[in-house]
Amino acid sequence: MAAIELIGLTKKFGALTAVDRLHLTIKDKEFVALLGPSGCGKTTTMNMISGVVNPTRGEIRLDGREISRVPPGQRGIGFVFQNYAIFTHMTVRRNLAFGLEIRHRPAAEIASRVDEMAVLMRLSQMLDQPASRLNVNELQRLAIGRSAIVRPQIFLLDEPLSNLDAAFRAEMRTELKHLQHEIKQTMVYVTHDQLEAMSMADRIAVIDAGVLQQYSTPLEIYNNPDNMFVARFIGSPSMNLLPCRLGADNGNAALDFGPAGVMAVKDRRLAAQLSRRATRDLVLGIRPENLVLGRVEADALELPMTVRFVERVGARTIIHLERGGLVVKAVEKNGFVAEVDAPMTMSIPPSATVLFDAATERRLPD
Q1: In this structure, are residues 33 and 173 in contact, taking their beta carbons and an 8 Å threshold?
Q2: pLDDT along the chain (366 residues), means of 10
Q3: Are 338 and 331 within 8 A, CB to CB?
């Protein structure tokens, strides 16, 4: 087994707190992504797991055993870096075999495992070529294969796809997930690319300024962000966050968007949720693809808007709407008709909304 527990993990560099009291449990054979903007502490967290950096406080447990002060070479961890760390003067075969050779594995076992990994990483046709002749995509496959071949308990990957072209990144996302399924290893993957995290990870730890913001499945994080940082960071375009105040309309609950207008709350569930709120300053969250344009939905929140800009992006059309300073993005299928400066009715299905407290920026419970 290779379950990892981070308990109150903290790392300070002088006055800077890079990681602040991080609690995280990674299950055996789970693929977990550490996701966040540059400088948020995700690579520092990975370096503490690997032993490259010692924590200031807290514990790292591997299958219940405290390993915070165990040397890196004794932790059973494989590491793949952004910059490959390949021996370019060696052949592809020797690079793949290197980790097994220094562990003094039998020659027959080394040959067999090199051939297996070469097939898995699609390097079989270039085993006897020097690594210096490989292109960027092939070098990254070799780096991953060289680390995976020794079958470490934990496999750490620090933005391994960032140097690849867009088409090959998409291909490698599938390959990495397939690789994990084949070798059955616990994987921790550092990235600032939400698409990588959402498409590959079993669970995602969203981190900002060294603090864990949310730790859950990709679908849960996307649909139910714990706070406004996660709502902004996840999604392209990101979730619309619309400031409003809880008000009343003919004795019924309503959301007041100031100069943009008032939305009457017709949905009983949403009205009941609002009736329990002590705070009146709210932020309404809605994913762009969940907005309904040009028609009125039953029990929906409705607001007349004006089309300000239309983006045609392949299979999608992104419509930018505005009214009284309230700016909203909606996503429709390619071919959706929207004229700039034309009026457009916007309907918000209550079941797709998320409410946040404007002061704390935390999601309100249903």
Answers
A1: no
A2: 91 96 95 95 94 94 91 84 77 92 92 91 91 85 85 85 76 79 84 92 96 97 96 95 87 86 86 77 95 84 93 92 95 90 93 93 88
A3: no
User: For residue 158, which amino acid is it?
Assistant: D
For residue 1, what pLDDT is reported? 64
Q: Which tens digits make up the pLDDT trace of 156-170?
A: 988 887 777 777 788
Closest CA to 259 of 162, 325, 316: 325
Residues counted in the chain: 366
Nearest C-alpha neighbor of 364 from the set 208, 263, 261, 231? 231
Phi-psi region of 116 (alpha: psi -120 to 50; beta: other; left: phi over 0): alpha
Domain segments of the chain as ranges: 4-233, 240-357
Cis bond before residue 237 (omega within 30° of 0): yes
Q: Which residues contact 132 (CB under 8 A, 6 or more apart)?
A: 88, 89
The listed CATH number (3.40.50.10610, 3.40.50.2300, 3.30.70.1450, 2.40.50.140) that belongs to domain 240-357: 2.40.50.140
- Count how many Cα atoms sit within 13 Å of the Cα of residue 342 in the half-sphere of its side chain: 10
Q: What is the pLDDT of residue 153?
A: 82
Q: Token pair of 40, please?
A: 């948020």
In single-letter form, the type of residue at position 196 comes to E
Q: Are 283 and 241 in contact (CB under 8 A)?
A: yes
- pTM value? 0.88
Whether 301 and 261 have beta carbons less than 8 Å apart is answered as no
Angle at 173 between CA 213 and CA 150, to 5 degrees: 95
DSSP for 279-319 reads --EEEEEE-GGG-EESSPPTT-EEEEEEEEEEEEETTEEEE
Using DSSP's 3-state secondary structure scheme, residue 39 falls into coil
Say which residues have a Cβ less than 8 Å from residue 78's Cβ, sequence separation at least 6. 147, 148, 150, 152, 154, 155, 156, 185
3-state secondary structure of 257: coil
Q: Which two tokens stand for residue 229?
A: 């940082």
| Predicted pLDDT of residue 278 | 66
C-alpha separations of 255 from 302, 303, 323, 325, 331 in Å: 11, 11, 15, 16, 23
**Topology given in CATH for the domain delimited by 4-233:** Rossmann fold (3.40.50)
